[in-house]
Amino acid sequence: MFRFTAVFLLPTGVHAAKRPRHRRGGGRITKKCKSSTSGNNAEIAGGDAPDLGSPAPSTSLRAFERHEFLGDRVIGYLVAHHVFDEHPTLQPLLALNVDNEKLARAAVAHGLHRFLRHDLPLPCLPAQVREFTADIASYPVHSNGLVKTPKILAGIIESIMGAVDVDSGHDQERLWKVFRRLADPLIAPRMVGKHQMCEFRSMYRAGLFPKVKITGHWKRSKTIKVVDVHGETLGSATYAKSRIVARNRAVKSALAGHAQVQESVARRRRCRRK
Question: Domain span at residue 223?
């Protein structure tokens, strides 16, 4: 059974180093829950970190943020070593495996958002989880910047990893086992395509894409357009939750349209040769 000082349920079967327990505030409070990943009982223990029964929400929030800060660094370190060892020439895999969307997917997949304290200022969290789950349904592995991710979901995994780092005595082997179980499967080569903005910039520098301007009054219309020098729209997207995501979707639309045009031109040339 995994026992650690955090608000969340961790899958059983991975054990942290035992630490002395001290009574604080209203005392130590534990709650048995059903694991969403293994079906076995796991225990959530109160302590220095946010817990399900802490009498001081402000203290819990500060502890959550402190563990989130630590966990962010821990995850980056662990995945950096994994990419370095397994995929030495594919550094973009690091960003894909530690960004907000990847971590938020892990939190939702394990149902960890259900164990956040209800008295934290998160009244819209259930709706955000539903929207995020619906958005990523079209992208089984990663959207590459095409959906808006609630940061609090990624913060759950970061806070868990920060708490496990403290409770395990900074044991890297145990940390890696826990993270692999939470984040499985890690993104590998060929699982996702190239980010649309990277593809757009590389094509533009190589002269394979016309000169364009990314424009639009997003605050008013929630729409971003990619237009050429003649004012013709090559791609557009409407996305109310994020201007950056709207831009990424517009660029992806422009790339898709450009690819179709190039394929059409190539077909006409082949027909003429015949």
Answer: 196-273
236 and 161, same structural domain?
Answer: no
- Across the range 74-99, mean pLDDT stands at 84
Shared domain check, 175 and 135: yes
3-state secondary structure labels for all residues of the chain: CCCCECCCCCCCCCCCCCCCCCCCCCCCCEEEEECCCCCCEEEEECCCCCCCCCCCHHHHHHHHHHHHHHHHHHHHHHHHHHHHHHCCCCCHHHHHHHCHHHHHHHHHHCCHHHHCCCCCCCCCHHHHHHHHHHHHCCCCCCCCCCCCCCHHHHHHHHHHHHHHHHHCCCCHHHHHHHHHHHHCCCCCCCCCCCCHHHHHHHHHHCCCCCCEEEECCHHHHCEEEEEECCCCEEEEEECCCCHHHHHHHHHHHHHHHHHHHHHHHHHHHHHHHC
pTM as predicted: 0.72
Residue 91, pLDDT > 80, answer no
CATH code, 140: 1.10.1520.10
